[in-house]
Specification:
6-stranded mixed β-sheet; 4-stranded antiparallel β-sheet; 17 strands; alpha/beta
């Protein structure tokens, strides 16, 4: 029997339309817009100015603290300006705009196709290199990778979990990466194991990707301590807590982190980026992006330079369909709709989903019928109907007491609600307000 997590979960249609589309390198655009905040934590600080010439891989923004990440130029050219822009969610952010001239890379980057298996760096140097290269979680969360690898004093990690689940409907970038860069991914896993000083790693993959499971299983036979773990189909199995439960049977208590049960989780895309950073001295300047949708002309997987306009990526897949009702950054469950398309691909852009007007139209909500379906599917064991209600009424103390901060925003509750209530919308609202209260409380406690 295939393993899976033990609480809640749903089974949305997979719609992996681009699974058979090989990764194609997207042409370098004429101009890139590179945000200095592409990660959880403090925005990086620009170290270039207008008029400066830059090469591919050059540092252009320095991390501004431990929980932050360096930003490197994805192109060669001239810095045109450093300015604020409105991102796809309507927030103002700073970006470095570069006009492209040629494609000149730093000589320190190994661009050869040779696969380098020997790991020469020591654990501390691996973590340092990963930090220098600006690596973040590639599954969408964008947590700085060097922070995850810095195990706090008093904690012990004995299991590395690699997320190859890609349970979000439509998305296929991780699937294609596992098929086309499997050996490099496993070398990256070995590098992460060495950095954490662990002897065991598990690569969790849902069984709707049998080709990836077979391919990595064959390759893993020549790697020490790496197990390819097939998993049953179940959303949101790609969540850290759900994946740890599925792979090694450990459940994380409320308010705790994976390291509290001896585990560290990294995405397969991050493992590949680790290989490139440590073995090839290549910063995180490009990533695989899935562009998909039922009415899109050519659902595809592209290797895209960071900073490339989203509209350029969509054009390469056939352009915006006439019946398009919504363009989402990410998948339909946890992704967020773009307010406009003049936004750049960033480190966390795993996919771009174009939904038709019929698909994207929300049904009219009606009164809660107390069916408790939202409770039964919640993978965190919460009561979504209650969290939504207290959030809507501004009862933030109650929301905190009901563990609203444990919500992983997977959308399972809204998906299953027969009354079409916008449960996740209200929970996100309450979670944001409770989070602000907790941060203010923590800051006051330090004074």
């Amino acid at each position: 029997m295939l393993k899976t997590f033990s609480i809640g979960g749903i089974h949305p249609a997979a719609n992996k339309l681009s699974a058979g589309s090989a990764i194609q390198a997207l042409p370098v655009p004429e101009v890139v817009k590179v945000p200095v905040a592409q990660h959880i934590g403090a925005p990086a600080q620009p170290v270039v100015a207008k008029g400066d010439s830059v090469k591919v891989g050059q540092l252009i923004a320095q991390s501004a603290g431990f929980v932050s990440a360096n930003v490197h130029s994805p192109v060669s050219g001239v810095v045109d300006k450093i300015e604020d822009f409105v991102d796809g969610n309507g927030y103002r952010k700073m970006a470095i705009v570069i006009k492209v001239e040629g494609d000149e890379w730093l000589e320190s980057i190994d661009r050869s196709a040779d696969i380098k298996r020997e790991i020469t760096l020591e654990p501390a140097d691996i973590v340092k290199k990963i930090g220098e290269m600006g690596l973040v979680g590639m599954g969408g969360a964008t947590f700085p990778s060097h922070v995850k690898l810095s195990v706090p004093q008093g904690k012990v990690c004995d299991a590395l979990i690699i997320n190859g689940v890609e349970c979000e409907p439509y998305l296929t970038s991780d699937h294609r990466l596992m098929l086309e860069k499997g050996e490099e991914i496993l070398i990256g896993v070995s590098i992460l194991m060495k950095a954490l000083n662990v002897a065991k790693a598990y690569v969790g993959i849902e069984n709707n990707k049998p080709d990836a499971i077979d391919h990595l299983t064959r390759l893993a036979a020549s790697f020490s301590g790496i197990t390819i773990q097939p998993l049953a189909l179940r959303y949101p199995q790609g969540g850290e807590k759900q994946l740890i439960d599925a792979c090694i049977g450990r459940q994380i208590p409320s308010g705790k982190l994976p390291i509290d049960v001896g585990a560290v989780v990294q995405n397969v895309g991050t493992a590949y980026a680790v290989y490139e950073a440590v073995q090839k001295n290549k910063p995180l300047i490009e990533r695989v992006v899935c562009v998909t949708g039922k009415t899109l002309a050519r659902p595809s997987n592209f290797l895209v330079r960071i900073g490339t306009p989203v509209e350029k990526v969509i054009e390469a897949a056939g352009g915006v369909p006439d019946d398009c009702g919504k363009v989402i950054g990410g998948g339909p469950m946890m992704g967020r709709a773009f307010t406009h398309l003049d936004v750049p691909v960033i480190k966390g852009t795993s996919g771009i989903l174009l939904m038709s007007k019929a698909e994207s139209q929300r049904a009219e909500p009606s009164n809660c019928i107390r069916c408790a379906k939202c409770v039964s599917v919640c993978p965190m064991g919460l009561e979504p109907f209650l969290l939504a209600k207290v959030s809507a009424k501004g009862l933030l103390d109650r929301a905190e007491a009901e563990h609203i901060m444990d919500c992983i925003e997977c959308g399972s509750c809204s998906f299953t609600c027969p009354s079409n209530r916008p449960l996740l919308d209200y929970i996100r609202l309450g979670k944001g307000k409770v989070g602000a209260i907790l941060r203010a409380r923590a800051a006051a406690a330090k004074k």
